[in-house]
Write a structure and sequence with these properties.
The chain is mainly beta. It is built from no helices and 21 strands.
């Protein structure tokens, strides 16, 4: 069940959210004032850095990484001056994307970090004003810019699918040798006989790579990208569906196993079957 928490920054009325305008080409602001901040990404020695130009003076920021991107430009705090939503990451295995709102206050550049997630934050509309939504495995958190700081104004928890049993990955990237594969015995095709589903941990990501049986006795190795995996009491195309993380599923499409978002449940004729973990 979704839960919403609204801070005093927004009035207690119905919240509406939708996409907002993306950044202009080249990462420049769309402000009309001569002294409006200009947000640009400069590259040097293989690294990218965010540079903000204020009143003709270029100011280098602390945002420096293998990849830095100006995702959008908008007036997030309502002061009439453009601010920037910026994303940066190391472009390597196990790297999450850090999202920040960058603004200028009294001629100084202020960086309000939002958080880390697999994908950059997105601009949404809250009561007609631009805000920032960050999506991770726990749900969607929405932030407004207030006083140069990112204030969380809403939280929508992701639904947690309830598998019959699970295998677990690691809590984030790890170094060193990966743990041994884990084995699930699951009636995948509904014939009353359990099949073996093996899941190994990709230690650089902490996620699971599972070998799933296919028709004709074959096996498909699937990099799930999920840290939690287990059979659901639902069938699709005559094959068991699996929970992947909190709100994704692995389903058989008639030819191959695919990872995707949870959609409508299978017909009621597909009765739940048991599963045991080993």
């Amino acid at each position: 069940m979704s839960r919403w928490f609204l801070a005093a920054l927004v009035c207690p009325a119905a919240m509406t959210m939708g996409p907002a305008a993306a950044a202009p080409a080249g990462g420049a602001t769309a402000g009309t004032q001569a002294d409006a901040p200009l947000y640009e990404v400069k590259e040097n020695d293989g690294l990218a850095k965010l540079v903000v130009t204020v009143g003709g003076k270029a100011i280098a920021t602390k945002i420096e990484d293998a990849s830095v991107r100006v995702e959008a430009v908008a007036d997030f705090d309502g002061d009439g001056q453009p601010d920037a939503l910026v994303a940066n990451d190391c472009m390597g295995n196990g790297c999450l994307v850090t999202s920040s709102i960058v603004t200028v206050k009294a001629g100084k550049v202020v960086v309000a970090e939002i958080g880390e997630a697999p994908e950059p934050a997105a601009v949404v509309s809250v009561f007609g004003a631009p805000a920032v939504a960050l999506t991770d495995v726990e749900g969607v958190r929405t932030f407004a810019l207030h006083g140069g700081k990112a204030a969380e104004v809403a939280y929508d928890a992701s639904p947690a699918l309830k598998p019959l049993t699970t295998v677990e990955g690691l809590d984030g990237p790890q170094t060193g040798e990966a743990p041994p594969p884990q084995l699930l015995k699951v009636d995948v095709d509904g014939d009353g006989k359990p099949e073996a589903v093996r899941c190994a941990i990709w230690e650089r990501w902490g996620s699971l790579v599972c070998s799933l049986p296919t028709p004709g006795g074959g096996v498909q190795e699937l990099s799930t990208g999920c840290e939690r995996f287990g059979p659901l009491p639902v069938m699709s195309q005559g094959r068991r569906m699996f929970a992947c993380g909190r709100n994704q599923v692995v389903r058989f499409d008639g030819k191959r196993w695919q990872v995707g978002p949870w959609r409508a449940a299978a017909p009621a004729a597909n009765k739940p079957e048991g599963a045991t973990a080993e």
